[in-house]
Design a protein that fits this description.
- Two copies of one chain form a homodimer.
- Chain A is built from seven helices and three strands.
- By secondary structure, the first copy, chain A, is mainly alpha-helical.
- Chain A has a three-stranded antiparallel β-sheet.
- In chain A, a hairpin with a 7-residue loop joins β2 (94-98) and β3 (106-110).
- Chain A is elongated.
- Chain A starts with a helix and ends in an 8-residue tail after the last helix.
- Chains A and B meet through α2, α6 and α7 of A and α2, α6 and α7 of B.
- The first copy, chain A, binds a DNA duplex through residues 39, 43, 48-51, 66-68, 76-84, 87, 102-106.
DNA sequence: TGTAGATAGTTCACGCGTAATGTATCTGGC
DNA sequence: GCCAGATACATTACGCGTGAACTATCTACA
């Protein structure tokens, strides 16, 4: 039997330099694999993960919001938002509207067809959540969230 | 006090649909933040995360290896490797050599300057590992790795 | 041999993340 | 009122991940 799953997965010859390195690589690897699965699901609906993320944020908010606020919730830099929103607009998923009070601000609004698309995706998305993590016990799932939240404490101050 | 850190971070109005969704988003978020930190470190050495990854794999192996094998260890699709290796070759970090027995295969080899570069990076990279995860106890770190490995059990069969 | 299929790598087109820079608009102090 | 700096967004250039289609080479089997 393998003493270490990840080491095996990566065909790594030597053991890890530190438990921290091992945990870090485990995070990266898990993220990649899960992202892949979601990417495939979203593509069936002609969306990329980022596009789906934007739509979800807009639905969660329930009302139009400025570009920047969307970007902040995605850890994403501003320039990326422009092109992302361009494509969503072309696809008819969002509408742009310039704010009358502060003309620098552009408000983004979900279209009805996007809302309907999101609704159709809810079931398969939740199914995938269950498929990916449903085999962990409730305790383990909560424990995992707790550890990741604690891990993130070290990157609190986002330097410019 | 906030009942839920992540919910707060994302300025999410409603609670999560399920503990699974929460854990999934925690993975994505943690990964993004950590990737950012590493990306910044690598950029100081004029490398991207992927490029560093390739160099580390080659050093770990200790001898030249074919493109495909490198790609496999990175969860990465083949086409991306070509461009990645092109840039590494231009920068003088690797050499390409066509195999004489099977002329379809191209072997990749680390140059001496790349080995020296990696060595210079070892200390700062390990420091960052400690900075990011050093505040978890040994038990917590191991627990985190164990949970992530268990989580990945659900994506065993990589479908084509 | 000789031809079909597998395999290694490449090329291309597209979407997205990042940094650097530019443009329009707002706000503050004077 | 006027100008400096902040702010919101757009534009450009580059690297990289993905899928689809292509080339060169090897292997198997008739």
């Amino acid at each position: 039997m393998s003493k270490n799953r990840l080491q095996n997965e990566l065909k790594k010859k030597r053991p890890f330099d530190s438990p921290q390195q091992e945990a870090l690589l485990n995070i990266l690897r898990t993220n990649d694999q899960f992202q892949n699965r979601f990417g495939r699901l979203f593509r069936e609906f002609d969306l990329t993960p980022s596009q789906y993320n934007v739509l979800r944020i807009l639905r969660g908010e329930g009302k139009p919001m400025p570009c920047q606020e969307i970007g902040e919730r995605m850890i994403q830099v501003v320039p990326a938002m422009t092109g992302l929103l361009d494509r969503l607009e072309t696809q008819g998923h969002i509408r742009r509207e310039r704010c009358t009070e502060d003309r620098r601000v552009v408000y983004i609004e979900l279209t009805d067809s996007a809302k309907e698309l999101l609704q159709r995706m809810d079931a398969p998305v939740n199914e995938l959540h269950q498929q990916l993590l449903g085999h962990l016990s409730p305790t383990e799932t909560k424990q995992l969230s707790r550890l990741l939240e604690k891990a993130r404490l070290s990157v609190q101050g986002k330097p410019p």
